[in-house]
Backbone:
């Protein structure tokens, strides 16, 4: 396997801008993921578990290891969950 596919593994910081390729290959939420999150969490608590899931898959680290989550990643996850855009001051608010 190419090391390119491991480029986010172990990262404690993500680039400010992520490409469509990054979303498709590293931060993708499947319809099954979305269905499980919607089934198990209330609407106002879905963003945290979804971010946790994509970051664990891409970087192998939990959400609390990241200081900042790129706005593009927040937008992608909220769109995948069918939520309105998230505007947060810190990860603690998630």
Residues:
């Amino acid at each position: 396997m190419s090391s390119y596919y491991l480029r986010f593994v172990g990262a404690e910081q993500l680039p400010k801008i992520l490409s469509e390729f990054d979303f498709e290959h590293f931060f993708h939420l499947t319809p099954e993921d979305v269905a499980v999150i919607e089934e198990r969490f209330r609407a106002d608590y879905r963003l945290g578990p979804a971010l946790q899931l994509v970051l664990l898959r891409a970087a192998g680290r939990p959400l609390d290891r990241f200081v900042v989550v790129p706005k593009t990643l927040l937008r992608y996850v909220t769109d995948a969950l069918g939520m309105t855009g998230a505007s947060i001051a810190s990860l603690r608010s998630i």
